[in-house]
Specification:
By secondary structure, the chain is of the alpha+beta class. The protein is built from ten helices and eight strands. The strands form two sheets. It has a five-stranded mixed beta sheet with strand order 6-5-4-7-8. A three-stranded antiparallel beta sheet has the order 1-3-2.
């Protein structure tokens, strides 16, 4: 592992996570928790297999990640963050928020994985009706799905389909992200190709943004 050889906390942190791909490996493990090497590689389109192996090995040596053997029926070696590695969550969230304005200018052929939405959704969504009954919303992009659940003032976002959500939103990544972060209202998102099935009040509970045209005075 290369070092800046500087007696500075920022430099020491970058000695560990400053190499290309290292922090994105941390992102994947924050989202997926423990996962197999093949799942980790799938979430990092463009990385060479040998480079991923090198980065995981370096992070393991630094105490950021650890390997564990999962028993049957999985019967595979899983990679997960250590307690020290999970301390990077606030760093990753802040970097994602800082970099978000450039998403609007991202090339159309940039790679995308639906599970990457999990962290910004956790950051942006709020239960605006904590005393109301629990609701759930499924988000579908390509062949992946996420489920958002609001209950008693808490919002939970998890990977996978819900199987009976109160609302389902399907569309391209930019439109879905715009809707769920309040930059697009429901009408604008639908005009951009979003398919929304279910009660619009589910969306209004999660996103403080208009879900239709303003009422006439």
């Amino acid at each position: 592992m290369r070092s800046y050889k500087q007696s500075c906390g920022v430099a020491k942190a970058l000695d560990v996570i400053g190499d290309r791909w290292s922090l994105l490996i941390v992102r994947e493990l924050l989202i997926r928790e423990a996962c197999r090497y093949t799942d980790l590689r799938d979430g990092l389109p463009g990385i060479a297999t040998n480079l991923l192996a090198d980065r995981v090995r370096d992070l393991e040596a630094a105490g950021v990640v650890a390997r564990e053997h999962a028993p049957a029926p999985i019967a595979a070696t899983l990679i997960r963050l250590t307690d020290r590695g999970r301390e990077l969550q606030s760093v990753v969230l802040l970097l994602g928020s800082w970099g978000a304005p450039w998403l609007a200018e991202a090339p159309a052929d940039d790679c995308f994985r639906a599970h990457w939405l999990l962290m910004p959704l956790r950051l942006h969504l709020t239960d605006h009706a904590p005393d109301a009954p629990a609701v759930s919303m499924e988000i579908r992009i390509g062949g992946e799905a996420l489920t958002v659940e609001a209950s008693a003032g808490a919002v939970r976002v998890r990977l996978g389909a819900s199987g009976g959500a109160d609302a389902v939103a399907s569309g391209d990544p930019r439109t879905v992200l715009g809707l769920m972060t309040g930059r697009l209202d429901l009408n604008a998102a639908r005009a951009a190709g979003l398919d929304y099935q279910g009660d619009p009040r589910v969306l209004a509970r999660l996103v403080r943004a208009p879900v239709g045209p303003p009422s006439a005075p």
